[in-house]
Design brief:
Elements: H1 2-13, H2 22-32, H3 36-49, H4 54-66, H5 70-87, H6 95-113, H7 117-123, E1 136-139, E2 142-144, E3 152-157, E4 168-169, E5 174-176, E6 180-190, E7 199-206, E8 213-215, E9 219-222, E10 225-230, E11 237-242, H8 248-251, E12 253-254, E13 261-263, E14 266-276, E15 281-282, E16 286-293, E17 299-300, E18 305-307, E19 311-313, E20 315-316, E21 324-328, H9 334-337, E22 339-340, E23 347-349, E24 352-361, E25 370-376
Parallel strand pairs: 1-7, 9-16, 18-25
Antiparallel strand pairs: 2-5, 3-4, 3-6, 6-7, 8-10, 10-13, 11-12, 11-14, 14-15, 14-16, 17-20, 19-23, 21-22, 21-24, 24-25
Helix pairs in contact: 1-6, 2-3, 2-4, 3-4, 4-5
């Protein structure tokens, strides 16, 4: 292995300069005399004797370029890459470093010869785009998929060093298995050992926060129901919630501890997550289910019946400091047409027939309805 490495590196350094082989010198002399076909034959003879004679390979390629046989030069270069690949042990610890040094020489030669530029563009692996990951946060043990072109292997590391074939191989995703802040470096390496341009992104890896705790738990409750969340730091974390079962990460309302979540009569699927501003991560999702029933109707001081007037009706079963009672005496809807009830006065009924309907209003929702019919003589 080490012998091959030395041959490869020296062959690049000494390429197209003087060397000890007379046959190589003969090929170079023919090149200088513009006898390209004869030069190609000399270099091919050298290659048949020793396929690792890289100086002969490049002599042949240069002769083909000078003879305007660019397609032949492309084929020869591709064949050369195959020979190099066969003679390297990619399990060797030095493999990645040697390939990288080899690539630097190859870059210079291809640029120098110019005519192989179009072919080199085809074999040069593309830059892997991870710009969408820059300054993003991910959870420990999560994976992130990226677009990988065909015909290359993608390697990555989190140690701020150049990517080599000894780094982690991308398979089904980039695996984040360590908590902390890192510079992610990614690059593609093709079958010839040529590495594409590196891409970097700054990423933050943290444990996912637990879902917020909620009070009360799922169940059926009278209206109004006020839900509160616990288990979060109000200084660095925000709770987002929805009450219709949609995703709180995209549709959520901000939770304010001093207000709670007010749920009037209805059926609710409450979903909530904690967003941590320091890590940029959302917690696991908490889900609770509530059925909020209308509060009991107000209670009247007299049931339906016939009474001697004037007769006064009083309501109980509500908090006069926080609730109102709305009522009608003609059978119409008290929510739409109700009169405010004043506890100090009651409802005075004189002669006639009255169809009483009443609800408690707590500024958010209405209670169940009380109904009674009174005949006053």
């Amino acid at each position: 292995m080490k012998k091959i490495v030395v041959v490869v590196i020296l062959s690049f350094v000494l390429l197209f300069t003087s060397c000890g082989g007379a046959t190589v010198e003969k090929g170079k002399k023919l090149l200088s005399e513009k006898k390209y076909i004869e030069a190609i034959e000399v270099f091919e003879e050298l290659i048949e004797k020793d396929e690792t004679n890289y100086e002969a390979w490049y002599g042949k390629i240069k002769a083909q370029i000078k003879d305007d046989e660019y397609k032949d030069a492309e084929d020869t270069l591709e064949e050369l890459f195959g020979i190099i690949e066969e003679n390297y042990d990619d399990k060797d610890d030095d493999y990645a470093a040697v390939i990288e040094e080899y690539q630097e020489y190859a870059d210079d030669i291809v640029k120098e010869e110019g005519g192989l530029g179009s072919w080199y563009e085809k074999v040069q692996p593309p830059k892997i785009d991870i710009s969408n990951m820059d300054y993003m946060s991910y959870t420990v043990d999560s994976t992130q998929e990226i677009d990988v072109p065909k015909g290359v292997n993608v390697y990555y590391n989190l140690n701020e060093k150049k990517v080599t074939a000894t780094d982690k191989l991308y398979k089904k995703g980039i695996v984040f298995d360590t908590e902390g802040s890192f510079t992610l470096t990614v690059a593609a390496i093709n079958k010839y050992g040529i590495k594409g341009e590196e891409s970097t992104a700054f990423v933050n890896i943290a444990d996912i926060p637990d879902a917020p705790s909620v009070d009360p738990i799922s169940g059926t409750y009278p209206s109004p129901l006020v839900v509160t969340f616990k288990g979060f730091n109000a200084n660095t974390q925000t709770i987002y919630y929805t009450s219709d079962g949609t995703d709180p990460k995209t549709n959520g309302l901000s939770y304010y501890p001093e207000d709670g979540v007010y749920l009037p009569t209805g059926h609710y699927e409450l979903k909530a997550v904690i967003y941590d501003s320091s890590s940029g991560l959302f917690s696991a999702e908490g889900i609770t289910d509530y059925i909020v029933e209308a509060a009991p109707a107000p209670t009247a001081s007299a049931d339906s019946g016939t009474y001697t007037g004037p007769y006064t009706i009083y309501f109980s079963g509500f908090d006069p400091m926080n609730n109102d009672v709305l009522y009608t005496l003609d059978g119409s809807d008290p929510i739409d047409n109700g009169i405010y009830y004043y506890p100090d006065h009651g409802i005075e009924l004189t002669q006639g027939e009255y169809n009483l309907r009443a609800v408690i209003y707590d500024f958010w929702t209405y209670s169940k309805e009380y109904t009674a019919t009174y005949t006053i003589k």
